[in-house]
Amino acid sequence: MSADDRVEVGPASEFEDGDAAIVQVGRVDVGVIKADGEFYALRNECPHDGGPVCEGKVEPRLVGEWGGPGERVDQHYDDDQCIVSCPWHGWSFDVETGEHIGDDRYILPMYDVVVEDGLVYVNDE
Amino acid sequence: MIDPSEHLVVDCDWHYADTFEQVAPYMPEPWKTKFQKSGWGGTGVKQNLSAFFPASTGNRFNYGKIEREFSEYPDGGDDKQDVVEGMDHLDIDVTLQISHLILAMGGISADDRRVESFVKGYIDYMLEEVLDPDEGIYGLAPMPYHDIDASIDVLDRIEDEEAFVGVVMVTAGASPPLGNRKYDPIYERCEEEGYPVVYHTGGSGLDDYVRAGYQDMIETHTLGFLESNMSQIVSVACQGVAEKFPDLEIVFMESGVTYIPGLVSRINEEYLKRSEEAPMLEKKPGDYITDFYFGTQPLEVSARPDLLELCFDMIGTDRMLYASDYPHWDFDSPSVITDLPMLSDEDRKNILGQNAVEVFDL
Fold first, then answer.
1. Could you tell me the end-to-end alpha-carbon distance of chain A, in angstroms, rounded to an integer?
2. Measured at the alpha carbon of residue B158, what is the angle toward residues B157 and B162, in degrees to the nearest 5?
3. Which residues of chain B have pLDDT under 50?
4. Of A77, A88, B200, B317, which sees the most CB atoms within 10 A?
5. pTM score of the predicted model
């Protein structure tokens, strides 16, 4: 891959977990999100209504565990699963897979992202 | 078209017109004595207007336009022979009896034992006087669900009784709604016993309808059943009853079928925007709903045929159960199913009987 095939996002050191940056890759906007120390790049266009999904909140996913009959469902944030929620209507996607958390038929296209020499890049492919 | 008389027909919603006078001798004390001393017989009050359960008004007989003996609420109540004759009249082989009076239980908010005592008496009465598996007359046991211990007592009572093949949860008035964890012990036990839970709607009266001030039954009868069922379906689906109890069969009765696609569409739309609020779900709530079973009555045969066909497609003909609601004024005879042009004969036979055989293990 040549340098021309990728888009520079910026210094990795400027990202905290939960931060996102929007870059143009080819003809589309891509959100580069740092979550749990890793970088992910997802298309910044919600399949629902075209909203800027990667400008939404990035946070651990709220999950539920049922203890048995009569018990409340224990709801807690799972630090191993991170989601981004579209600011327009709340559709939420797993940042690792791009899949909607409620219906995996809806998927945000994912892009390869790499860190080299302290800089974050998204592949333009 | 098939002839219902030549195929198995299971009616999943037959209303037994019980009376307090019939059931009272079987009720536990002190309610038996309380009732029997209440001067009931001397008041001239009809059995469908109850001082024991709240009254539901609205003229079911269209202010005299409908006149037929079998759809009245007889002062003396039904007896087994009325059921046998009705089954013969409609060409029905198997019926699941539902207490007529218990449908008013949702109007009781007092923390007393009226519902429990009535249900216990009703079950003993039905076992003694009406139910008869040899003649295809089975029962669904009402759950006094606001009292979980009492509900478990009822399940203990019927567990060895072949004549009871499931339970009824009256959807009108259930608060909190029936997806709440409070009801888990009932669902757990029903799953263990293999009893389907039949959610039966109610709440078509004028004065005790969810919003006061309606003037005629055409208004509340259009809305009451629908509103009661929809509110419970949403709760049961979103709170994950089907995930908690995966072998539990869930049946919703008596609101027709055309509301279901709309509800599924709305709940799925909400879910995509608020998925984390239903963390028990492994799929869209609408996908659970279309795995529930639905009684067909009152089937909206006057709907546009393409709408009805779409509804049947969304729900699935393997999820539909023929129900008559007999002898109520708006009952459906089996011909509402056999006459539907878009169904195959196989579909017709499944809806009329075979689906129910599997669900209720008949």
1. 10
2. 150
3. 44-45, 47-49
4. B200
5. 0.91
